[in-house]
Amino acid sequence: MLLRVERLTKRFGELTANHQVDLSVERGQIHAIIGPNGAGKTTFFNLISGFYPPTSGRILFKGTNITGWPPERIAKKGIARTFQTTHLFEEATVLDNVIIGNRLRTRSGFWDVILRTKRERREERESLDRGREVLDFVGLSHLAGEPVSEITQEQKKRVAFALALATQPELVLLDEPAAGVNPDETDGLAVLIKKMADTGRTVCLIEHKTSMIMSLADRITVLNQGERIVEGTPEEIQGNPAVIEAYLGGDPTGDGRPQTV
Amino acid sequence: MSWLLNTRNGWIAVILAALVFPMIVQNQYVLHVVTLAMIWAISVYGYNMNVGYIGSLSLAHVGFFAIGAYTLGLLTVKAGWGFWSSFAAALVLTAVIGFFVGLVSFRTKGHFFAIYTMCVGFIIYLVIGQWDSLTGGVRGLIGIPHPPPIGPITFDTLQSQYYLMLFFLAVTIFVAKWLRDSLTGRTFLAVRNSEELARAIGISPRKNQLLSFVISCFFAGLAGALYVSFIRFIGPEIANIVLGFEMLMYLIIGGIGTLAGPLVGTLLVVWLTQSLQFLQESRMILFGPLLVALVIFYPQGIVGGIAGWRNRRKRTPSQKREGKMPASKAEEVG
């Protein structure tokens, strides 16, 4: 078990965003977290990646209790994440954006700058190599020299993936990776996510596009109003009355598709 | 003309011009003003390493300039230390005080950081002005020595002091360049871009902000120490927040976060100030609108504006990019 979340609860004052959520993610799997808007999915990611301290509960990663660790420490431990709104450095080139992802594996500091040390040069080279490698992985090598402001939304998503991968994570948390891209591009991103899992990374993602999830995920956890209502394989989820209830409670069309953002 | 647009050649031209400048210009007043401008430039470079590289707007910068200046002044005049040991002590002390101030200040963020550091700057100003027995209060300190000779090199003429400041300015610019191009500099940039994203990729914003703050304080202290050894007199007015805003103005006009910005901004504004001397205080009527226009149209200052223009020019041939259309469509969907 790579990630194990036990009875995780987060309260913001009166509001309980996550209530006693359990989650187990196995190595090499793609694990999706779905649920209607406001179900507490992003909060849940923020808890795992350390952006919010949980009110109660435990998070175990590779057997280590990482509950309450700051995000930067969790990132070093091997969990990378992307955000719903990709914020990249718009003026910088694609390559420059991802080079910094290797920073947490380097040690050069200010004195290395002043003394122009070998370590600084070696680590710069390593970071550059890593940057090229991850760009190659996400299929953007040809855009390495373009400023981020000049590339498409879907390409920006790929850059964000590449940046996360540059940290050499074992677990990648993707927060709505396909939000705001068209159906064709969504398929392309799904292929990329599959490729991540196939090359040994574990992926945990939040997504609203059900068709994508159903074909991609090994397991699905459904959250509703901050609680886990069910977990299982896509087949199990699809026919589950609780899930249909959660999603379609007020949906007159009944086409089984949740609203997208 | 176009060869000048090449960054490297541009810098070489600047260095050559700076080296021959005192030989061509015999006017002592002009040389004095330019020497002073180089000292400001050192301070503005330090400022840029904080405000520009990592994006935390400290308004205490001028306070650290004053700490560097007063440390050198007090140690040489009152404690009877040697010049160079006082000089080193001034730099170290400024950086150390900067470290502790930063430790507290970075508990605040954004606007609050700016306000907090402005208060720190004002406290430094008040302490210097009021602590009569140590600093001499409003009367200030006089009789601060020029740098003593190093081997055969003496610093008692204006020309030699010009070269001394040029040397320190060059060192500062090199550090600014190395820092910008290093992993540490990239880390600063990542923090400036988004603290949230920086944390997600394992970078601690606080640690890096503190580092950049200390570096910037160090250069403020260096500029302060050089200033006082050049002018040989100090009063509390050098800690005045107005001077701090002036340095910020140099930086904004030249170009925040750029390498040449501090130099361009400082030289340009000092030159303008000198040419508009006859307007006295009302020259701000001219500077105000200029600054506002610049911030609106060229938020990255003169240097940033030129760089942007050059980039656009370079890009125009390869303008047609197929990916362009889906991008805007996709954004509407999202």
Task: Please give a structural write-up.
- The complex is a heterodimer of chains A (261) and B (334).
- Chain A has a domain at 1-78 and 204-261: 3-Layer(aba) Sandwich (Rossmann fold).
- Chain A is built from 10 helices and 10 strands.
- Chain A has helices spanning 41-48, 71-77, 94-99, 110-115, 118-138, 153-166, 183-198, 210-216, 234-238, 241-248; strands spanning 3-12, 15-25, 30-34, 56-61, 64-65, 79-81, 171-175, 202-206, 219-224, 227-232.
- In chain A, strands 6-7-8-3-9-10 form a 6-stranded mixed β-sheet, sandwiched between helices.
- In chain A, a hairpin with a 2-residue loop joins strand 4 and strand 5.
- Chain A is globular.
- Chain A starts with a strand and ends in a 13-residue tail after the last helix.
- Chain B has 334 residues and is mostly helical.
- Chain B has a domain at 25-239.
- Chain B has a two-stranded antiparallel sheet.
- Chain B is globular.
- The termini of chain B are far apart.
- The interface between A and B is large, with 52 and 36 residues.
- Chain A: Pfam families: ABC_tran, BCA_ABC_TP_C.
- Chain A: GO terms for molecular function: ATP binding; ATP hydrolysis activity; L-isoleucine transmembrane transporter activity; L-phenylalanine transmembrane transporter activity; L-valine transmembrane transporter activity.
- Chain A: One of its GO terms (cellular component) is plasma membrane.
- Chain A: This is Amino acid/amide ABC transporter ATP-binding protein 1, HAAT family (TC 3.A.1.4.-).
Defining traits:
A: 261 residues; alpha/beta; Rossmann fold; 10 strands; B: mainly alpha; two-stranded antiparallel sheet; disordered C terminus
